[in-house]
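note to self: the first set is below, dont mix up w the second
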Amino acid sequence: MKNGKRYALLLAVLAIALVLVSCKAKPADGGDDKGTTAAQTTASTTSQSTAGSSTSATVLDVKDFEITPPEGWTADENVQHFWYAPTYPDDPSNMNIQLVPVGSDFDEMMNYTADDYKELYEASFEGGFGEKIPVNVLVCEKTVAAGFDAMVMALEYELYGTTLFAKQYVIEAGKMGLVVTLTQEADADWEDAFDSCVNGIVWKY
C-alpha cells in the first residue's frame, strides 16, 4: 500500500507539472487534445525513474537560478529537480521544478482561468490514469513570486482513495519560465515551507 501511494503521488505531481509544460494554445473547439502530450510525457518520465533513491538535499544551482528545498528534504537521484519530504515514504509529499521556454504559449497560460486549468488537469489525469478524476481548483490567481509575475494555483483531488493537495507556481522570470509544484496528502503541512522556498529563489541574471 505504501509503495502504491508513493507511485501514485509521483505520477500525480509529474502530471500536474507537465500539463503546463506540454500544453500549447487552448483548442478552439474544446476538444480533448489538451492532456495527450502531458500524459505521454508523464508516462515516459516515470518509466525512467525508480522513484525511491534519494540523497541529502542541496541547493539546486542551475546556471540562471538557485533554489533551496524545505529543510530536511532529499533530492531524488534519478529524477532531476525532484525532492521528497524528510520522512518519505511515511510522508510521501514531494516537490518538483520544470523549466519552460517563455513565449506566446507561456504568455497565454499566464492568462488561463480556473476553468481552463481544471480542464487541463482533468484531461491530463484521464490520459495518464485512464479514468476521470474530478479536480477542485481552490486558488487560481495572478501574484508575484520571487520578484517576478506569476500564476499560483492550488487544487484538491482524490486518487486511489487518498485526497491530495497540490500547489503550483508558474513564474515568468524574464528569459525563462519556471513551474514549481508541491504535491502532498491533504492533511500534510508543507504549504508554508513550499511558499517560502519559492519566494526564496535567487536569480543570477
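second set (the one i keep forgetting abt)
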Amino acid sequence: MINTSLPFAMEQLCFNGGGIIVSMFIVKLGTESVAANAVSNSTLMVFYSMGLAVSNLSVTIIGQCIGAKDKKMARYYGKIMVWLGEVSILVSLAALLPFLRIILKLYQAPDNTLGQIYMLLAIAFVPMALLWSTSNVLPNVLRAAGDVNFTSYVSLITMWLIRSVIFIMRFHSDRWLNQRGCEKRIVPKKKKDQEFIMNSRSFFLL
C-alpha cells in the first residue's frame, strides 16, 4: 500500500506546490487577475466533476479485474473507462455551456473580470474536451494495476498533450498489467466477488 500511495502523494504535493507558485505570479498581475483566475478554476471544477467521478470509478473496476487475475478484462474495462470519461466531459460541456452566464453569476464575479474569465475558460475548454480523459482517467486505470511509479513520474514532468500520448502508449503496451503489485493481489475466492465482476461486465455491454 505504501509503494502505491507514496508516489501518488508526492505527485499531488508537487502539483499543488506548482499551483501555489503560479498563484504567486498571478498575484503580481493585480486583483482583477486574481479574481478571474479563482472564478475560472472553480467553474472548471464544475465542468469536469462528472469526469472526476468516472476517474475514481475506474480505480475500483480495474482493481476488481486485477484482483481476479483477468488481464483481458482489465484491458477491456480500461478502454471503457477512458471512453466513458471522454463522453462525460463532452456531455458536461454540452449541458453546462448554455448556462455559463448563470454559473458565473453565482460567483458574483465583477463585471470587469468577465472578459478575462471567458478567455481563460475558452483556453481550457478545448484541451479539456480532447485530452482530459486520457490525461486523468487513464492514469488511474494504470495505477489500479499497480503501475504507480510510471504514472507519477510522467505526471510530474508533463501536462495535457504529452502525458495523454505517453499514457496511451503505456496502455497499449500492456506493461501496466505486469507490475509487481498485480502479482501480489489476492484472487477473489468468494462467489459473490466473481459474480460482481461478471454483472459489471454485463452492465457495460448493455
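remember for set 2: Residues 96 and 102 are 10 Å apart (CA to CA).
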